[in-house]
């Protein structure tokens, strides 16, 4: 007998959710809309290893913690099986499982959603174009100066599936153009309506700024949002209360600070991830690198906190030739950068200088990129395999429309 309760509106979504990006958060947002409560199953590190031959960059606890920070998530379970069966949905009291329309297979080639599919308990939504863990990994490789090799381009598949003009462009400009979005796997098309959907729950300007006299501001690139960022923002909110506004640097500013290849993600993709976090009350797009009086007055900011110590990855060769600040070492660079960016709030006495996180809680961009450098051969292997899959997916006419 089917034990599911037809009035139950809990929805289950599962996945790896590695290097969490706006495509994942859009999936959570869409899945949440299918019911009242969203339960997220996170594939364990070991299961990912068995399936892909490499552990995820973010471990299962970090992926769980990031999920917990997301405003559309009600419950998290770490280590749900890759194959989603009726029994699991019943046990979790979920009526449906939701998944994007990209094809996924178990290691034995079977459909992990076969049972709920047959029972009419699988809801499929449109996958978000332009961002994937694979494309993020490939962009990180380029930013870190790691060799991607020409053979990441699956030329045979392209020859079959894309138009002549695309092949022409590919041969002329190579990997850079490919990664930067002329070809569908990496091209985000973010509409105002998507931004509005992500901003749901954020109060109007009048409500948040006129009724609240306690406003804290944190600025940064927030490129590759990781557990260090989330812990930092949650702690800042705990210390100051009130409302937390995030200033996101535009792409040119991020490149100026971190060097060629950065940002990994375009400003709007980075902003959407921030808007997915419960802790964030507002986001300002494209803020000035040097905080101005005007910015502080406009948003009635009374605390400023720097997260430059979290966002600390600079390639060694870039430190000395950085045109913004001439430095000898990473520590010196971060110190001078902070002096430069926060001069005004420091003078006004509103810059908070005490450490935000304990040593054992800190996770920085440098830590995340070091993990990638350590596993680079395995990751390259995954990029090559998955890239072909993505190109095939998007070259299919029915998948090429914009995801709303
Ligand atoms: N998802 C999506 N849009 C994306 C990426 C993922 O809608 N651009 C959805 C997937 O379809 C799935 C969920 O997010 O329902 C979890 O994805 P995950 O298991 O991390 O799958 P991957 O496909 O491996 O993610 P990616 O393609 O980013 O590697």
List the helices and strands and how they pair.
Elements: E1 10-15, H1 22-33, E2 37-42, H2 45-52, H3 60-68, E3 75-78, H4 86-91, E4 96-100, H5 114-118, E5 122-125, H6 133-143, H7 155-161, H8 164-182, H9 192-198, H10 205-211, E6 215-220, H11 227-240, E7 243-248, H12 251-258, H13 267-275, E8 282-285, H14 293-298, E9 303-306, H15 316-321, H16 330-341, H17 343-348, E10 351-352, H18 365-374, H19 376-395
Parallel strand pairs: 1-2, 1-4, 2-3, 4-5, 6-7, 6-9, 7-8, 9-10
Helix pairs in contact: 6-19
Bound molecules: cytidine-5'-triphosphate.
Note down, in words, how this protein is organized.
This protein is 45% helix and 12% strand. It is α/β, with parallel strands linked by helices and 404 residues long. A five-stranded parallel sheet has the order 3-2-1-4-5. β6 (215-220), α11 and β7 form a beta-alpha-beta unit. The longest helix is centred in the C-terminal third of the chain and has 20 residues, at 376-395. It binds cytidine-5'-triphosphate. Cytidine-5'-triphosphate binds at residues 15-17, 23-24, 27, 99-100, 102, 127-128, 131-134.
């Amino acid at each position: 007998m089917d034990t599911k309760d037809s009035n139950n509106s809990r929805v289950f979504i599962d996945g790896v959710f590695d290097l969490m990006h706006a495509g994942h958060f859009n999936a959570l947002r869409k899945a949440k809309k299918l019911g009242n409560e969203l339960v997220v199953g996170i594939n364990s590190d070991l299961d990912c290893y068995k399936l892909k031959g490499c552990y995820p960059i973010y471990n299962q606890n970090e992926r769980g913690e990031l999920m917990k920070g997301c405003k559309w998530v009600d419950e998290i379970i770490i280590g749900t099986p890759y194959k989603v069966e009726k029994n699991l949905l019943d046990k979790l009291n979920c009526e449906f499982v939701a998944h994007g329309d990209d094809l996924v297979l178990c290691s034995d080639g079977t459909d992990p959603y076969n049972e709920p599919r047959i029972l009419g308990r699988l809801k499929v939504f449109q996958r978000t174009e332009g961002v994937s863990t694979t494309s993020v990994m490939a962009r990180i490789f380029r930013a870190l100066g790691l060799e991607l090799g020409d053979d990441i381009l699956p030329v045979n598949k392209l020859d079959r599936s894309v138009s002549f003009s695309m092949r022409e462009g590919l041969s002329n400009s190579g990997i850079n153009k490919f990664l930067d979005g002329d070809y569908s796997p990496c091209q985000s098309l973010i509409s105002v309506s998507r931004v509005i959907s992500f901003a749901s729950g954020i109060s109007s300007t009048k409500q948040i700024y006129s009724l609240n006299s306690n406003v804290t501001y944190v600025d940064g690139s927030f490129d590759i949002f990781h557990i260090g960022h989330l812990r930092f923002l949650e702690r800042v909110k705990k210390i100051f209360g009130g409302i937390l506004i995030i200033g996101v640097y535009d792409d040119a500013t991020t490149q100026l600070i971190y060097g060629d290849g950065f940002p990994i993600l375009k400003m709007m993709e980075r902003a959407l991830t921030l808007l997915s976090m419960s802790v964030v009350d507002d986001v300002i797009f494209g803020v000035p690198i040097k905080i101005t009086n005007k910015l502080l007055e406009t948003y009635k900011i009374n605390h400023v906190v720097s997260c430059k110590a979290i966002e600390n990855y600079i390639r060694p060769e870039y430190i000395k030739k950085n045109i913004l600040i001439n430095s000898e070492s990473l520590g010196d660079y971060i110190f001078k950068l902070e002096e430069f960016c926060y001069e005004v709030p420091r003078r006004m006495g509103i810059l908070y200088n005490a450490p935000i996180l304990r040593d054992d809680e800190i996770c920085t961009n440098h830590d995340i990129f070091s993990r990638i450098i350590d596993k680079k051969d395995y990751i390259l292997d995954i990029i090559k395999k998955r890239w072909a899959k993505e190109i095939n997916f998007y070259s299919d006419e029915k998948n090429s429309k914009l995801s709303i």
